[in-house]
Design a protein that fits this description.
Elements lengths: L7 H11 L3 E4 L2 E4 L2 E4 H9 L1 H24 L8 H4 L9 H15 L1 H11 L9 H7 L14 H10 L1 H7 L8 H8 L6 H20 L26 E3 L7 E6 L2 E7 L3 H8 L2 H20 L3 H25 L1
Parallel strand pairs: 4-6
Antiparallel strand pairs: 1-2, 2-3, 5-6
Helix pairs in contact: 1-2, 1-11, 3-5, 3-6, 3-7, 5-7, 6-8, 8-9, 10-11
Length: about 325
């Protein structure tokens, strides 16, 4: 069985292997006939803590709302997941607040969510009746279309077996709009692509659950540098918005280099330790000095273009090996 790294590159590889309609061409990730920048896939992974917390919010809301309808004697309570969430629930906010607070403890939704948070390795996750009221007003697809993987289904079944039967529908695309809202991307066709990608994010996380390799609530990695390293001009790290690996910069009142911490080549160099970092930094230091010393605008533009092309080609190469 293929092993995947517990990082954004491993997640991308997992998608390519497990989505039959996915492929990658250079820096474009295709989901069916929808092209999207590969950085968008990485962005979904980096936001996994936020997205999975919202997923649990909505699972809990579907659970509590259905429980409330049954407890209040609604004969059609099994249709509750077909009718929510819905923006028009804003008109019933007071009633929802009252009902959710009344049945919150009795329903054991808090205990159910705690077991799911453990499965998804979400440290510090908690939900409240107030948050669930807000979730009820989400405009999009209904709860009957939630993707509930086996590991989650087994835990929900302990508390509310009837709900599990209701949620076993063919469509599993409820979360497409939630992802689109979080990313603030509403392009034609992207929502459908987001649904499949997010469902696989759930599967990817659950695959690591037994191994306990990583925690989904962490979305950043700290780089610790050796304080005993030689006292030389060190590069500056930051984000370079045109995608270059580096750009000339003034560092410590001298011509230096700024490295793009979001570029996979820089990440690969840093994984190699301080020696490889120093070697590459020295090379880029010289190139930065040359670019700064170039007096003519036409020549400077050529060097800038060269820097952009090198960065792009190296990124494509890194995508194939990371």
């Amino acid at each position: 069985m293929k092993q995947y790294l517990p990082d954004k590159y491993g997640f991308k590889d997992y998608l390519l292997d497990n989505l039959t309609d996915a492929r990658q061409e250079e820096l474009i990730f295709w989901k069916k006939n929808i092209p999207m920048p590969v950085d968008l896939i990485y962005g979904i992974y980096e936001k996994r803590g936020i997205l999975l917390a919202k997923y649990l919010d909505h699972v809990g809301t579907a659970f509590l709302y259905t429980y409330v309808q049954r407890a209040k004697g609604d004969r059609d309570w099994k249709s509750a997941p077909k009718n929510a969430p819905e923006e028009t629930f804003k008109d019933k906010r007071a009633e929802l607040n009252s009902d959710f607070k009344q049945y919150y403890k009795q329903s054991q939704v808090e205990d159910m969510l705690a077991t799911l948070a453990d499965v998804f390795m979400l440290e510090g996750y908690s939900c409240t009746a107030e948050r669930m009221v807000e979730a009820m007003m989400h405009q999009g697809k209904k709860y009957q279309r939630l993707y509930i993987p086996k590991a989650a289904d087994e835990r929900i079944h302990v508390f509310f077996p009837e709900l599990c039967a209701i949620l076993k529908q063919n469509q599993k695309d409820m979360f497409s709009n939630v992802v689109a809202d979080e990313l603030q991307i509403y392009r034609m066709g992207f929502a459908d692509a987001f649904a499949g990608i997010f469902n696989k994010l759930i599967d990817f996380v659950l695959d690591f659950y037994q191994k306990g390799i990583f925690n989904t609530s962490h979305t950043t990695i700290s780089i610790i540098q050796d304080p005993s390293a030689p006292d030389t001009l060190r590069p500056e790290y930051g984000v370079i918005h045109d995608g270059c690996i580096w750009e000339p910069a003034y560092v410590q009142s001298a011509v230096g280099v700024k490295l793009n911490e979001n570029h996979p080549f820089v990440a690969a160099v840093l994984k190699g330790g301080n020696q490889s970092e120093a070697l590459v930094s020295s090379m880029l230091q010289v190139m930065s000095e040359i670019e700064y010393k170039t007096p003519r605008d036409t020549e400077k533009k050529l060097l800038e273009k060269f820097r952009q092309e090198v960065s792009r080609e190296l990124r494509i190469k890194m995508e194939s090996i990371l």
